[in-house]
Amino acid sequence: MKEHFGGTMTNHNSTSYTTEEIADLLKVSKLTVYDLIKKGQIRAYRVGRQMRVDATDLDTYKESTKSGGVESANVTVSEQTNEPIRNKNDYSPPPIIQPYATRQLIISGQDISLDLLANAIGKKTGGFRPLRSYTGSLNSLMAMYAGEADVVSTHLFDGDTGTYNIPFIKRILVGHSYVVINLLSRTAGMYVQKNNPKNLHTWSDLIKPSITMINRELGSGTRVLLDEKLRLEGISPRKIDGYFTEEMNHIAVASKVASGAADVGVGIEKAAILVGVDFIPLIQERYDLVMFKTDENLHLRESIFSILRSKEFQNEINAMGGYDLSLTGTVVYETE
């Protein structure tokens, strides 16, 4: 069987569609397509960051939603019940639809507290199977906008207002209804070698002669913090040796400093304690969670509120040290 799609003749069995194409074919929104995939009603697979659906799986979904009976040639009648019975040779089982109780939940962000949150959700909600995506704050928000994340963590510093998260969230999630809840606060600053031999204390010290830094990747909250501080100081990133050398998490940055591969890096205090480098505190950052407000995720939102405010969860976080939980579970911003 062949079909025309986009003006090109293709073999139906090898055709696959993006979520945008599926939404166009079914005349529904892209978010509806993601919801069908999460519920297991449409089988999909991931290629890089993109979800794809084979044409045969799309056909299976469409057939499973059609109403109507079977042809009489395939039907016999029970003498006991007078009900139609399909010939056993023609029987094929209905498609397996993933029950609500096993819906996948994508939690995006890198702090270890999110692993504890995912574990608590898996134990207590009963309605979701949490999956972790270790993606930076800015990229996580973009994934949420694209329908590829359900719970997103952010620590994005806005230099113009001197505040965290809300200016970025408003710009990226425009047109959506959402709630922002504080997860925790933590200290960010510079990793330096033991006893701080290069005497580094401020953002402007990064352009000192003979200083080599190690940076975080584009899209991470730490990279945004550094770029905003450099902008406010009037410092060109090109003046900093090592600015374009990147690592993907706080531990990796702190480890580069500990090994002597770099003199300085930017990150959170927790990683400095774990790796064993000195830490210069520079800012207290607010680490928030973002969720869309929909009728479908009302139970999830209520469950997360309950978990964040519970003594059990807060005691787990406190046991790790290095976090401020004074605002944990507080709504810091909400749209109508």
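Second entry:
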Amino acid sequence: MPSAATVNPAAPRNTRGYTAIVLAGKRPGIDPVAAAHGQTYKALVEIDGIPMLTRVVKALSQSAQINDIVIVHAEDLGPIENIPGLSDAFSDKTYSSSAAQSTISDSVLTAMESQPSAHRFLVTTSDHALLTAEMVDDFLNEAETHSGINIAFVDKAVIEAAHPGMRRTYLRFKDAEISGANLFAINGSEGRNAVSFFQRIEQNRKRPWKMISQFGVLNLIGFALHLFTLVTAFRRVSKRLNCSVRPVMLSHANAAVDVDKLSDLETVKSIIEDGKYTARRDEKS
């Protein structure tokens, strides 16, 4: 795995900035999006000639709140410097690689441990093909004053207003329906503790009774029956984790659009073609 490389070390550094962790590995088995495009890894699938990983890194690099970028990937992805456009996308950010582990939480923890001087992390995925610096900035502006874990969501009404009829997976609460936006801010040691908790959850994924016990039966019943409001649900989760876990609602409909399936890839291409996506700060829809 490549060692850390520095680009423009004299560039100004935000003393309260974040280290971005980009998950560019894959789940066990064949990824259908990657396979349909002759790739092993979805991160390398191109949209308009640009790999999805390059698109994500470019958006992160345009945010003044991001200091460093860590790419989490398996060794057979090859040197990240060989991915088309990626070296230029890093701009003036420092970057490094971290070895993908058997679970997502293990991968995140390994990447965090590779940056011992960092205390704030932004975690996202390489299939967040519509990510923009504005999304990153809006999310981190809300997250930076709150320790623990902040998770980005988009309300169903926001998504449907921008993309009528779009099919998304929603979390239902007593007072809201929301979709995840694949952006997680981890602030301080409290956030690290919560990641360790989810590490235990993943380790017990083949023993459902033990996994359920981590959250408590009453909490799971409440979630399943939509008995809790959004605020109440996250308050209960925070108490269980002994860590503040806070939802951050974004006004960007595209933040909830990632590429899990081939149909998602077509959706992303349509959004770009229809002019409903702005890649750079100086472009207009």
